[in-house]
């Protein structure tokens, strides 16, 4: 891996949505547009360059509020970006998420044929995201962005998803979310794990050296430099089924919470098993400076405290040597809840759609998002557990159980149903602010 260097990121040209952790609490909106007229699509880009928030804007009058603008490969084509330029983008991006369904294990109920229209189709061209600490400031951000797309008859709004923080500050399965965030060299934003060395900026922003010294930049440079790739996925959560699984595999309420912790790797308060192995520690879970500062290799290599198959250890094995070079697969992840909560204690589904809008930010779709999704979430060869799946978000088929390492005998739980179903998504490109202007100034 590369040695530490003094990297200066051009923060005033990078969209803030690339590097800033989501505020807590939060409200968010995803708006999807189709470009029907090329010239008006370019006008949208010109206007969007003024509406998007830069990473240098950390003192906005609206606080932790920003607007991000992303474009799909279909969108770049609709804007008239030459094929020679499109061919320099990541091939996964050029294919689109729906075409990558098999690699992502989006099969069965999660297959693109069941996705929410128009997600995963060539109609998805531009995704505008607004995020803020609360609903009033979110509406103010949307109002600021509205002139970018308003009164453009050649640009059609085709989908919207509103998200918000639950009153508990948790996601629908009951776990504190948004706990982990990597430090990016040159960003000035500290990571959530004080023991993690900041990652090279090229792992997340195009045009800078990455962990192996490479520099990736789609061409022309004015288009690719300071950009990033983004993955958006709408994930439906089967909350009632998750609750029934915990109840049916536990002896009592205390045991149920222990199983929930062993499945996730954290207690529902956010306290990690690595630091609170026997009982929940809500004060620890609420402390952003302590709840994510831990490693595995020295104190728990065999996973007797934090199971190797649990969600957080699969998603980020940290210093686990069995996972290879973890830093090459490190990701920026963000989640935003949508839909009303299932009433407390309810064990039957009420038919209401609820779940998480998942977002990935990075410079390497293949070895970051797709690798983690296919090799760590839906396979377990890297830690010797065959083809077992992540117990929370994996593509479970109802045939394989979950194992909790324990002395003298391991504990085996019943076969896992699929708790999370993909409702749709897309691979996007987050252009720099100067690239948005360049897209606006394109000529045939």
Automatic annotation (TrEMBL):
One of its GO terms (molecular function) is heme binding. SUPFAM superfamilies: Dimeric alpha+beta barrel. Keywords: Iron, Metal-binding, Oxidoreductase, Peroxidase. Transmembrane segments: none annotated. It comes from the Bacteria. Its cofactor is heme b. One of its GO terms (cellular component) is cytosol. PANTHER family: BLR4509 PROTEIN, DEFERROCHELATASE/PEROXIDASE. Belongs to the DyP-type peroxidase family. This is Peroxidase.
């Amino acid at each position: 891996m590369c040695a530490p260097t003094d990297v200066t990121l051009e923060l005033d040209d990078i969209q803030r949505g690339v590097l800033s952790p989501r505020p807590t609490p939060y409200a968010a909106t995803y708006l999807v547009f189709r470009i029907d007229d090329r010239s008006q699509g370019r006008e949208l880009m010109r206007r969007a360059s003024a509406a998007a928030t830069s990473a240098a804007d950390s003192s906005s009058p609206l606080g932790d509020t920003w607007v991000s603008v992303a474009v799909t490969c279909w969108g770049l084509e609709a804007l008239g970006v030459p094929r020679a330029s499109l061919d320099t983008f990541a091939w996964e991006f050029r294919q689109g998420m729906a075409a990558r369904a098999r690699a992502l294990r989006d099969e069965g109920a999660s297959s693109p044929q069941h996705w929410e229209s128009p997600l995963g189709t060539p109609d998805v061209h531009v995704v505008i995201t607004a995020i803020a600490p609360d609903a009033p400031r979110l509406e103010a951000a949307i109002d600021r962005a509205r002139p970018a797309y308003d009164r453009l008859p050649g640009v059609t709004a085709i989908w919207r998803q509103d998200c918000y923080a639950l009153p508990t500050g948790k996601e629908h399965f009951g776990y504190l979310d948004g706990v982990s965030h990597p430090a990016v060299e040159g960003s000035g934003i500290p990571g959530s794990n004080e023991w993690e060395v900041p990652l090279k900026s090229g792992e997340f922003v195009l045009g800078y050296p990455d962990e192996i010294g490479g520099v990736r930049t789609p061409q022309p440079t004015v288009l690719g430099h300071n950009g990033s790739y983004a993955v958006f996925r709408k994930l439906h959560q089967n909350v009632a089924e998750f609750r029934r699984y915990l109840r049916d595999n536990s002896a009592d309420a205390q045991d149920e919470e222990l199983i929930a912790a062993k499945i996730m790797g954290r207690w529902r308060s956010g306290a990690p098993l690595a630091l609170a192995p026997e009982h929940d520690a809500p004060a620890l879970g609420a402390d952003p400076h302590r709840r994510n500062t831990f490693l595995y290799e020295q104190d728990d290599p065999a996973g007797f405290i934090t199971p190797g198959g649990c969600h957080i250890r699969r998603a980020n094995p940290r210093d686990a040597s069995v996972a290879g070079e973890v830093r090459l697969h490190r990701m920026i992840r963000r989640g935003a809840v949508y839909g009303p909560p299932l009433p407390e204690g309810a064990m039957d589904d009420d038919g209401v759609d609820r779940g998480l809008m998942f977002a990935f930010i990075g410079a390497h779709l293949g070895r970051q998002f797709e690798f983690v999704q296919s090799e760590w979430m839906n396979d377990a060869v890297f830690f010797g557990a065959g083809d077992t799946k992540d117990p929370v978000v994996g593509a479970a088929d109802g045939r394989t159980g979950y194992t909790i390492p324990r002395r003298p005998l391991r504990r085996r739980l019943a076969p896992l149903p699929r708790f999370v179903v993909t409702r749709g998504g897309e691979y996007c490109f987050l252009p720099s602010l100067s690239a948005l202007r360049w897209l606006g100034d394109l000529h045939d």
